[in-house]
Design a protein that fits this description.
With 490 residues, the chain is an alpha+beta fold. It is 41% helix and 21% strand. Bound molecules: adenosine-5'-triphosphate and magnesium ion (3 copies). Residues 1-490 form the Alanyl-transfer RNA synthetases family profile domain.
């Protein structure tokens, strides 16, 4: 089943259960001081749960563009290294605002997966909140009893407060959740270990796909819980993970969400993406690095393209800086492992827009802007990388022995935005070591200086304010032919 059809099935299914289907909110949040990006389906409905606004319908379903790269949910460093965490992903969700509760939510989740999508029941695991006496929250007996109608007890797992209890904050709505996991291991592997004994194995191919949160309590300022007057359901299912399960593959990158984009990278670079065999090892082998780099690039381009399409340009602070860093991470992986020295990531936007444009028209209407912005960013960062390489060569030439001065590496990082992990990598490849302690010390010294002043920009370079007088400290770097200056107020 194609990804397009899977998404449609979800929305149609919940429409048939009288849900109002709404569009995804933008990925970038402009008016929420607590959150830069939408990181879950429920973010746009927060006010309903808090009782500050009334929803159009007490049942809603949608697919939400999410980005998990900052704050409480930050999956950035996993991306590329596993096969099911993305920066940007779609979260399919259904909601009840004071309408149905556990009974219907669980029955429909099961019906959707096993009847509508015909997933193999034997591969599904569910988790139920085990309770926590110290925190005064009870075992979710109700969910347990409901699941027991569908799932053998051996595949109902008890989960702790960290995984199976959702709270908005220290106070406010909260409640237990039930997750659904899918076991994508081979039949042989499943025959060997399954059921309860699988729990602690934390196998990378037993993947969480759907979280059902049952908001039934309100936590009061004194820490005690009271029943909410109206109970809510908030569910979130990873679309790409669902596609993986439905398309009989064991990596999100092997679904049709990603394969056309990967094919384009292969076409541009002349390199091949090979899949699962190397996913789970972290060998230094070059094919493994190529695979990681390709996963990083095809993941990151989606995050960046959709953020730009939703109005967030890369910039030097706030959300724009997060987007710039994601794109630079992709450029750096390309530069280092695929040998791409010219802009190319922007070309992937055409594929994205063909692939996702039918459902997300913004990627089609903003395509030219998105491409231009990405191309410019690529060109400018590639120049930085190129300059940095030359400077690094000079540093190496002046190095006596085999250990490169950490303070010099810091200078490259601080002044030219040359990433330290890239420095370390290049040094290693040339048979040198980096004096990491020296680098850390220089970094700490700089942080102390910034803290002493007050930092007003979260950038590669800092604008420091200590008083009122500005002194020009020199050009930090040249970007898009604009000189970025470092100004210190003394
Ligand atoms: P995980 O434990 O795998 O990190 P999670 O518990 O953090 O997932 P939830 O906050 O429960 O995730 O989000 C609901 C669903 O969204 C998950 O069940 C999963 O299918 C999907 N999901 C979460 N994070 C990601 C991600 N970074 N990339 C793709 N899908 C994700
Ligand atoms: Mg997570
Ligand atoms: Mg989880
Ligand atoms: Mg979860």
């Amino acid at each position: 089943m194609k990804s397009q059809d899977i998404r449609k099935k979800f929305l149609d299914f919940f429409e048939s259960k009288e849900h109002l289907i709404v569009p995804s909110a933008p990925i970038v949040l402009k008016d929420d001081p607590t959150l830069m990006f939408n990181n879950s389906g429920m973010a746009q409905f927060k006010e309903y749960f808090l009782g500050n606004a009334v929803p159009k319908s007490s049942r809603i379903a949608d697919t939400q563009k999410c980005l998990r790269v900052s704050g409480k949910h930050n999956d950035l460093e996993d991306v590329g290294f596993d096969t099911y965490h993305h920066t940007m992903f779609e979260m399919l969700g259904n909601w009840s605002f004071g309408d149905y509760f556990k009974k219907e939510a669980i029955a429909w989740a099961w019906e959707f997966l096993t009847e509508e999508l015909k997933m193999d029941k034997d591969r599904l695991y569910v988790s139920v909140f085990e309770g926590n006496e110290a925190e005064n929250v009870p075992f979710d007996q109700e969910a347990w009893d409901l699941w027991k109608q569908y799932v053998p007890e051996d595949r109902i797992i008890l989960g702790n407060k960290k995984d199976n209890f959702w709270e908005m904050g220290d106070q406010g709505p909260c409640g237990p959740c039930s997750e659904i996991h899918v076991d994508l291991r081979t039949d042989e592997e499943r025959a060997e270990v399954s059921g309860r004994s699988l729990v602690n194995a934390d196998h990378p191919q037993v993947v969480e796909i759907w979280n059902n949160v049952f908001m039934e309590f309100n936590r009061k300022a004194d820490g005690s819980l009271e029943k909410l007057p109206a109970q809510h359901v908030d569910t979130g299912m990873g679309f790409e993970r669902l596609c993986m399960a439905m398309q009989n593959v064991t990596s999100n990158y092997d679904t049709d969400v990603f394969t056309p984009v990967i094919a384009k990278v292969e076409e541009i670079t002349g390199l091949k993406y090979t899949t699962n065999d190397v996913i789970l090892n972290d060998s230094e082998e070059s094919q493994n690095k190529i695979n990681i780099a390709i996963r990083v690039i095809v993941d990151h381009v989606r995050a960046v393209a959709f953020a730009i399409a939703d109005g967030q340009l890369p910039s030097n602070n706030g959300a724009g800086y997060v987007i710039r860093r994601i794109l630079r991470r992709a450029i750096r992986y390309g530069f280092t492992f695929l040998g791409t020295k010219e802009p190319f990531i922007y070309q992937l936007v055409d594929v994205l827009s063909t692939q996702m444009g039918a459902f997300f028209p913004e990627i089609v209407s903003q395509k030219e802007l998105v491409k231009n912005v990405i191309k410019e960013e690529e060109a400018s960062f590639l120049r930085t990388l190129d300059q940095g390489l030359h400077l690094l060569d000079t540093v190496i030439e002046k190095t006596e022995g085999k250990v490169v001065d950490g303070a010099k590496a810091f200078e490259l990082y601080d002044t030219f935005g040359f990433p330290i992990d890239l420095t370390a990598l290049i040094l290693r490849e040339k048979g040198y070591d980096l004096d990491e302690a020296g680098f850390d010390a220089a970094m700490k010294a700089q942080k102390d200086r910034s803290r002493a002043a007050s930092e007003v920009s979260k950038d590669d370079w800092n604008v420091l304010i200590e008083g009122n007088v500005e002194t020009f400290e020199g050009y930090d770097k040249v970007e898009n032919d604009v000189k970025i200056t470092r100004i210190r107020k003394v």
